[in-house]
Design a protein that fits this description.
With 167 residues, this protein is an alpha/beta fold. It has a single domain (12-160), classed as Rossmann fold (3-Layer(aba) Sandwich), CATH 3.40.50. It is 43% helix and 12% strand. The chain has six helices and four strands. The chain has a four-stranded parallel β-sheet, sandwiched between helices. Strand 2 (72-76), helix 4 and strand 3 (95-100) form a beta-alpha-beta unit. The chain is globular. The chain starts with 11 loop residues before the first helix and ends in a 7-residue tail after the last helix.
Length: 167
C-alpha cells in the first residue's frame, strides 16, 4: 500500500505542520485523516498482517504513523525533524528506512533508532538526493546488506526452535 505524499503547493502546509508540531499536529491534518481512512479500509479488506506499506518523504511518514500493525513498513527518504535526533521518532519495530547520504529531509534520525536503516551513498545536488530516483542508485552492496540481515534473523529464529535444526 502506498499513501499519497506531498502534491502541490497547498500540501506543503502539511509538511510545515509536521515540522512545527510533530506527530500530534500532523494527525490533525486532512492529509493524515485521508491516509488513515485509506489504511483502515485496506486493513478491513486484506488484513493488517498482509499489508506492506511503502512511502517516500511525507508519504513515508504517514506509513510510519499508520503501519504499526502491518506486515512491514519500507520508507524512502522519510521526512524527519531535528527534534528526532534527541527524542527519537514514532518509528515502528517492523519499519525499514532507506535514505540517501546527501538528503537533508531524512537527515534528522535518532542514532538509537537506525538498526534497520540503509543509507545509499550518493552525491550531488541535495534537492535531487530527496527524489525517488535515488532508489535506483541503491548498490548491490546495500541490497545484500538488507538480505543478509533478513537471512540472519530467520536463522536465529530457527535456532531457537527445537524442532528445526540449522546446519
Amino acid at each position: 500500500m502506498a499513501h499519497k505524499g506531498t502534491s502541490g503547493v497547498l500540501d506543503w502546509g502539511n509538511n510545515a505542520v509536521y515540522g512545527l508540531t510533530g506527530d500530534v499536529g500532523y494527525k490533525l491534518t486532512g492529509r493524515y485523516r485521508e491516509a488513515k481512512k485509506d489504511q483502515d479500509i485496506a486493513e478491513r479488506i486484506y488484513g493488517a498482517k498482509n499489508i506492506t506499506i511503502i512511502g517516500h518523504s511525507q508519504e513515508a511518514y504517514q506509513a510510519q504513523l499508520l503501519g504499526d500493525t502491518s506486515h512491514e513498513i519500507i520508507t524512502l527518504t522519510k521526512a524527519t525533524r531535528p527534534q528526532e535526533v534527541v527524542y527519537g521518532s514514532s518509528k515502528k519495530k517492523n519499519q525499514y528506512d532507506v535514505r540517501a547520504s546527501g538528503d537533508l529531509v531524512s537527515l534528522w534520525r535518532n542514532p538509537f533508532q537506525t538498526r534497520k536503516d540503509t543509507t545509499i551513498t550518493t552525491g550531488g545536488d541535495p534537492l535531487k538526493q530527496h527524489s525517488t530516483d535515488v532508489s535506483m542508485k541503491m548498490s548491490n552492496q546495500a541490497l545484500n546488506k538488507l538480505f543478509e540481515e533478513e537471512i540472519l534473523r530467520v536463522l536465529r529464529e530457527k535456532e531457537t526452535r527445537k524442532d528445526i535444526q540449522v546446519d
